[in-house]
Design brief:
The protein is α/β, with parallel strands linked by helices and 250 residues long. It has a domain of 132 residues: Rossmann fold (3-Layer(aba) Sandwich). The protein is 44% helix and 7% strand. The chain is built from nine helices and five strands, in the order E-H-H-E-H-H-E-H-H-E-E-H-H-H. A five-stranded parallel β-sheet has the order 3-2-1-4-5. Helix 3 runs antiparallel to helix 6 and helix 5 crosses helix 6. It starts with a strand and ends with a helix.
Length: 250
């Protein structure tokens, strides 16, 4: 397995336990068979950052860095003339002196560079992204798997009430006055109950004296008058059958 060379920011993330480190890199560093190197240029850069107040430690960097590297089984990578001459030939205006030295060490010694800077690239240098592409890759893979699962499901109709033919539900009117009147709701004398409001002149009104439905048929009052007239005639016929004296005797 190719040894690793840690960039300065990767070293600081490792010592601080930063969660931005990728899981692949973390697993590889923790392997007992992996040799991990830290450039002396990183120690130089960390001391400069500490002097400017950009990083802080419990103790000064020149005291805690050697012990921390021994604790994590990291090895120092010294700088020699090959690294200096190669660093001067590297192109890249955005790279500072420390970045060029670390990149030159990885190229000269055949190390794989673990960096979070996408601009630290050089011909013949293998790099590993130290950030968290593992989580992003897992998220993309999970989203693709969910999409494939959704596309493979058959399109069954959703359960629900069957729709009626006709206008939409908001246009339906189901008022009692709009419903048809049943046949049993008819009067014996031929009239029926109207579905709408009744009026004195309505042909179907039960109190209407005449109309298409009740034409030629006597009403209740007329039938009562006719019955009274028949009884009166019967009474008069009985009186006329009696003599004049019989009627006075009573």
């Amino acid at each position: 397995m190719t040894p690793l060379l840690l960039d300065t920011i990767v070293l600081l993330w490792w010592l601080a336990g930063d969660g931005r480190l990728g899981l692949t890199l973390v697993h590889r560093i923790k392997l007992p068979t992996t040799r991990v190197y830290v450039s002396v240029a990183s120690a130089w850069e960390i001391c400069e950052l500490e002097r400017r107040g950009l990083v802080t430690f419990d103790r000064p960097a020149h005291e805690c860095l050697p012990s921390e590297l021994c604790t994590h089984r990291f090895e120092w990578l010294p700088i020699d003339y090959r690294h200096v001459f190669l660093a001067e030939t590297l192109q890249g205006d955005s790279l500072d002196m420390y970045d060029r030295l670390i990149l030159a060490q990885a190229a000269a010694d055949g190390l794989e560079l673990a960096t979070a800077n996408p601009k630290m690239r050089a011909t013949g240098v293998r790099t590993i992204d130290a950030t968290t592409p593992d989580r992003q890759r897992a998220s993309r893979a999970a989203a693709a798997a969910l999409k494939r699962l959704a596309d493979s499901r058959p399109a069954f109709p959703r359960p629900g009430r069957p729709r009626r033919a006709g206008p939409p539900p908001d246009a339906w009117e189901d008022a009692p006055m709009d419903r048809p009147v049943p046949a049993w709701n008819a009067f014996p004398w031929g009239g029926t109950v109207s579905a709408g409001p009744t009026s004195p002149t309505s042909p179907t009104s039960p109190t209407s004296p005449a109309g298409p439905a009740g034409a030629g048929e006597p009403g209740a009052e007329q039938r009562q008058d006719a019955a009274c007239a028949r009884q009166l005639r019967i009474l008069m016929d009985g009186v006329s059958a009696l003599g004049p004296g019989e009627g006075n005797s009573t």
